[in-house]
Amino acid sequence: MDPRKLSRAELVALTANAATGIADGKVSGFLAEQNTAFSDELTDKGAVLSAADGNIVQTRAASQEATQIGEAATEDLLLTHSHVHSAMKSVGASAAEYEALGYDAPDTTRSPVNPQTPTDLVAMPVATGSNEMKWVGNNAPGSVTYMIEAKIGDTAPYVIVGTSTSQKFRHSPVIRGEFYQYHVRAQSARNLVSDWSNEAVCYGM
Q1: Cα-based distances in Å from 156 to 23, 61, 200
Q2: CATH code: domain of residue 179
Q3: Rama region for 33: left / alpha / beta (φ>0; ψ in -120 to 50; rest)
Q4: DSSP 3-state assignment of 130?
Q5: pTM of this prediction?
Q6: Which of 22, 104, 138, 200 has its CA 20 to 30 A from that of 157?
Q7: Among 184, 31, 198, which residue's Cα sits nearest to residue 120?
Q8: End of a domain among 101, 133, 154?
Q9: Cα 149-121-195 angle, rounded to 5 deg
Q10: Distance CA 156, CA 125 (A)
Q11: Which of 20-24, 26-30, 93-97, 138-142 has the lowest mean pLDDT?
């Protein structure tokens, strides 16, 4: 569970559970002094929050000072939980060890990027003896590589002429007056590919 989404009473309960789990050696990678330090700190700060929360409940909204103390104690305790969570990650704690303390284990999976088909491809010759292409990528910057293919001559098959991580590409050298037809598609790191874009034609300058 995410400590920041808990009520103060729930956070106090989580803190007591985590402090007990650490004191009982539930995180195998911690040293003895880490067990003592983290358990004591969680217990002490949990007690502060518990007292502050009890005061808030008793005085309701009338006690602005108690509310401020509770909020400060919450942030301070959350910071300690963050330190414990980071320390567990640094020692390679298992999912079961996170669960024993009531924490969520870090998400080690990454959602695959589903490449979107490029659109609005245009191509034009430029004076440097190149053909310049631009298109609308429809993908998050840096999430895909664009593969550019060309037909060189109106009866030739498509061949790969380059790749780009941005939404433009310059094909060179090109032959003056020659027919060039291009299309582009996106490819992700897991080799998922989009459909080909529209085709764009130009003649080498």
Answers
A1: 73, 79, 15
A2: 2.60.40.10
A3: alpha
A4: strand
A5: 0.48
A6: 138
A7: 198
A8: 101
A9: 60
A10: 19
A11: 138-142
Residue 24: band (very low, low, confident or very high) from pLDDT cuts 50, 70, 90 = very high
Identity of the amino acid at 166: S
The answer to the question of residue 14 being in a domain is: yes
Query: What are the φ/ψ torsions at residue 119 (nearest 5 degrees)?
Result: -135, 170
Only one residue has tokens 């929360």, namely: 53
Do residues 92 and 137 share a domain?
no
Q: Which amino acid is at 123?
A: A
User: Using alpha carbons only, how large is the chain's radius of gyration in Å?
Assistant: 30
Burial class (CB in 10 A: 0-12, 13-18, 19+), 65: exposed
Number of domains comprising the chain: 2
Better-scored residue on pLDDT, 199 or 143: 199
Amino acid making up residue 16: A
- CA dist 111 and 117 (Å) reads 19
Structural domain of residue 152, as residue ranges? 119-203
Report how far apart, in Å, the C-alpha atoms of 83 and of each of 1, 4, 21, 76, 87 are: 16, 14, 16, 11, 6
Q: What pLDDT digit, counting tens, does each position of 90-134 carry?
A: 778 888 888 999 898 887 666 677 899 999 999 999 877 899 999
Per residue in 138-164, pLDDT (tens digit) is 888 888 999 999 999 888 899 999 999
Cβ atoms of residues 54 and 46 within 8 Å: no
